[in-house]
Design goal:
The chain is mainly alpha-helical and about 160 residues long. The chain contains five helices and two strands; from the N terminus they run H-H-H-H-E-E-H. The chain has a two-stranded antiparallel ribbon with strand order 1-2.
Amino acid sequence: MSIFVMNHVWSLDLPPTTKYVAVALADHAHDDGLEARPSQDYLSRKTGISVRHVRRCLHDLVERRVIYVERPAARGRCTVYGFTPPEGGFGRSLEPVKNTNGRSSGSNGRSSGTVWAVTHDPLIINNRNDKKAISYSDDVRRQTITDIRALLRPSS
């Protein structure tokens, strides 16, 4: 769902039903206005407009150059629409925002450093902040597993 594309669609001078279909289509687009791929049947159910009228509205939007067909429908694939961006874009830069410590706002330094090979062993801790992985000896593992099994056994 892209609020930026939806705001752009609300500002356009379109007939009411065409604008309504465009807003419903923008609800499925990415922030850059690309890859909106709902089916015409879904747009019909979402807007309460007949499928035939949804097709007319989509055709009208293509003619007005509000949207364009990124990839036409083919066997087993839906039509992918893209929104034609206004001159200044859709209202924000697509570059990642940097915060004060130099990391992108998406990760913020909280990504896990667990290696896939050791994820199945609960007694090995591997973190990017640590210089080396902490592993326990076999005796400690056996004792820990024995303690866990004793806790899980039902008392008779």
